[in-house]
Amino acid sequence: MRAYARSLSIALLPALLGLSIGCTKAKPSDDTITKDVQTKVATDPDTKDSDVTVAASQGKITLTGKAKTPAAKKKVEQIAQEEPGVAAVDDQIAVEPPAEQAAQPAPPPAPAPPPPQPIVVPAGTTLTVRLGQALSSKTSETGQTFIATLAQPVSVQGKAAIPAGSTISGTVLAAKAKGKVKGEGQLDLALRSITVRGQTFNIQTDVLDNTVKGKGSRTAKTTGGGAAGGALIGGIAGGGRGAAIGALAGAGAGLVGGAATGNQQIEIPAESALSFRLSAPLTLPPPSR
User: Fold this and answer.
1) Residue 53: what are its φ and ψ, rounded to 5°?
2) Antiparallel, parallel or unpaired: β 232-233 and 217-223
């Protein structure tokens, strides 16, 4: 009996050894799994154009990369699942967008609107103003400041630049009373600043030069490049205060409102309309949108 058992054990030993070897061969390494799956994906006609990376760890396969189509993605996953020794598959493959969709360029961004440009009122532009106070060759003083308002709006290339009613500051450049026997009365004016929409800007204008001499002879002219020999609004004799009120100077004519008094002084009543020309351009900020 013992001899029979010993013989049976000896007979079964090769079979057990073979089974053990077979089990060892049936469990491939992670490297082997990785190479096999990568090779099958690269040679399969349905998946060869996909850019897929295979990584195996303890029998679990992780798939990353891009597949050309959803069908190719599914086929790669199938190849991995059918590989011997694979316990699980983590499919992280992304599907590439269609070629026509990928080829479409992004629409260009909308161009930014051009920045607003400043307004330049050119030299030679006439500013017709209405005095806010009376001026006189006898009572006004050289260096005195006077205030006026713009009587007519100013446009540049058809666009509003300076609205009527804008406040203007001027200076009496010379004021000299006429003597009873000889000498001449003189009253020279120029504008110095203008306030447009709450902002004040320095301006340069030609000098409005007014003189009176002899027996009632009086001239009014614009110097510094302007027209000479301007006329008096309302005339000299019998004009009085009302002669100039409401009258507007013609553009570029260098007109002065007012009348001479009995002793031939130059008097310009309040609300008289005077005309000045810019001797230098005036740059204004662009209007707000």
Assistant:
1) -110, 135
2) unpaired
pLDDT of 63 reads: 87
Tell which phi-psi region holds residue 31, choosing left (phi > 0), alpha (psi between -120 and 50) or beta. alpha
- With beta carbons less than 8 A apart as the criterion, state whether 288 and 119 touch: no
Mean pLDDT of 79-98: 85
Mean pLDDT of 215-239: 38
Q: Where in the chain are the domains? A: 26-96, 119-284
Q: How far apart are CA 245 and CA 234, in angstroms?
A: 9
Q: For the whole prediction, is pTM greater than 0.85? A: no
Concatenate the DSSP letters of all residues of 250-287 into one string: PTTS--EE-EE-TT--EEE-TTBEEEEEBSS-EEEPPP
Q: For residue 14, what pLDDT band results from cuts at 50, 70 and 90? A: low
What pLDDT is stored for residue 260 in this prediction? 43
Terminal-residue alpha carbon distance, the chain: 115
Q: What is the CA radius of gyration of the chain?
A: 51
Fold of 119-284: Lipocalin (2.40.128)
Q: Which residue in this structure is represented by tokens 């599907």?
A: 95
pLDDT of residue 119: 92
The CATH number of 26-96, from 1.10.10.10, 3.30.1340.30, 3.40.50.10860, 2.40.340.10, is 3.30.1340.30
State whether residue 84 is helix, strand or coil: coil
